[in-house]
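Q: Give me the 3D complex with NAI.
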Amino acid sequence: MGERLKDKVAIITGAAKGIGFATAKRFAEEGAKVMIADISMEAVKTAAAQIPNAEAFVVNVTDRTSIQIAVDQILERHGQIDILINNAGITQDARLIKMTEAQFDAVIDVNLKGVFNCTQLVVPHMLGKGKGAVVNASSVVGIYGNFGQTNYSATKFGVIGFTKTWARELGAKGIRVNAVCPGFISTEMVKAMPDNILQDIEKRSWLGRLGTPEEMANVYLFLASDEASYVNGVALEASGGISL
Ligand code: NAI
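A: Here is the predicted complex, encoded as structure tokens.
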């Protein structure tokens, strides 16, 4: 328990499970009021019930109305939004030759347009206060690409583009924007990969293992907190050194 985010209001998208849920727990331990935003009513309620000072919001990041309703409710209840963690993301993998247009569009919609939607609807409030921190979920595949991930890796490269652009546009107005580039983290998204590929990934990480959601939560915590007050526009790789 600490006070690194004392009294801050944080929205975390995709926080019902995986890295988002671990981040919500960690932020609450540091004194934040955590707004769990995810697509299923049951999942957000279950997640929020496990975290002190957490509230549940049904938000589909591809649906701007659902985001706006949540933002309005949060501002009504708390009068502030200090932190936005754009964590929601999906995969629909296939090699270029086999990828359908529907697979391509679905991943672009959630991982890329979803980040644009949430940030565009939250930032006007942060501008009004003259402060805020936005942290976006990119990935190591947003730096290096990945076999079978035409759609996903394009979105994660795109998120770094957003991050560097918004860091320039918003920095002088008191809002820092950064990205996290996780390597391979043991969540459902990664557990869905074939065993032989997972073993190969473990070998390629110089720490010899996958990362944990809790380790990613600590990276989000640093970038979202005032400890990172001079960090703006970075894409911070947290991968056990997989790219070395
Ligand atoms: P996960 O699949 O465990 O959780 C993702 C959450 O996002 C789920 O609760 C899901 O319901 C939610 N979500 C999906 N579509 C949504 C939508 N349209 N609106 C709102 N919420 C939605 O995923 P995980 O592994 O925790 O990943 C979190 C983020 O980290 C993603 O952006 C992912 O791309 C990124 N990432 C994950 C890595 C990993 O190894 N697990 C590696 C690099 C990046």
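A quick observation: The pocket of NAI is lined by residues 13-14, 16-20, 38-39, 59-62, 87-90, 110, 114, 137, 139, 182, 184-185, 187-190 (CB under 6 Å).
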